[in-house]
Amino acid sequence: MNKLSLYICKLVLFCIPIGTYYIVKSSYMLSNDKYMQEVHGHEVYTSIKKSKEKTKIKKLIIGDSTANQLYNTETDTTSSIYSLTCNQAIGIVGHFFLLNNYLKAGNHPEDVYMIYSPLGFWDNLDQIYTYHYFLKPFYNEEYKPLMTENVFKQIHKIPFYYICQNPIILTSDWSPELTAEKRDYTFFSPISQEYLEKIISLSRKYSFNLHLIPPFISEYWQETINSFNINEIKGQNYSNDIESYLNNICFINDSYFSDHLHLKDKYLIDFRNKMDSTIQIK
Q1: Do residues 9 and 56 share a domain?
Q2: For residue 104, what pLDDT is reported?
Q3: How far apart are CA 198 and CA 275, in angstroms?
């Protein structure tokens, strides 16, 4: 046996147990959905599961991680609200999917509060977290019929999008590197515009009040947000609502935040109470 053949044999013998380990592990994780509680972004899977449950609660909260800090989808037990908050990486399209699930399950909310950072409207399914947080939970036969041409166009730009449902990939935290595209907009991405309109259409179809609520925002972002060009959504039937949403932003000192976006834990109770008052939760 020559050196090359010997090397190949050693490589195969090395890879077989490793490959077997990952195959067995992924099969186990899939068989009982255990991966949904263990991978990064487990709150997305929790929200998906909760979105299909029946409840009589009339106030629903959806939103990004700033909302999830205050109304945690996994731990909040307040009897007056139902939380499907998770994170911004699923985009407005992902929040539409959750809301649509909730309504299709036969729920009849009177008020839906969408607590969402204005910075999140930038997302066009083109950020580093899109693969793991959006593709893995949603790029499947259940949600594909709800995806528009724009969504598929963006997905097909993502490296290795076609293996995101592979058991080994799906049950791991692995994702490829992805660099956000150069934006030709300052505020609303095309997909955000498209799916906010779909959310508004749901509010008409199911007769609930939709409230767009800004979270507490660090002064760190004030200049950026003030530079948003509201004319980008001029003519949209929600442009007045967005203008009011922007005018209601409460900018607070950056010392309250751990990373310019998320509140420090020691302030959460106080700001939860402030938000409760804003959206009239008792």
Answers
A1: no
A2: 98
A3: 26
192: tokens are 């955000």
276: left (phi over 0), alpha (psi -120 to 50) or beta: alpha
Our count of domains for the chain comes to 2
pLDDT above 90 (res 134): yes
Spatial distance between the Cα atoms of 63 and 96, rounded to a whole number of angstroms? 10
Q: How much is the pLDDT for 282?
A: 61
CATH of the domain at 165: 3.40.50
Q: What is the pTM of this model?
A: 0.90
Same domain, 270 and 201: yes
Answer whether 120's CB lies under 8 Å from 95's CB. Answer: no
Kindly give the residue spans of alpha helices, DSSP state H, lying in the chain: 3-31, 35-38, 42-51, 65-70, 91-104, 130, 136-138, 149-155, 167-170, 190-205, 222-226, 239-247, 268-278
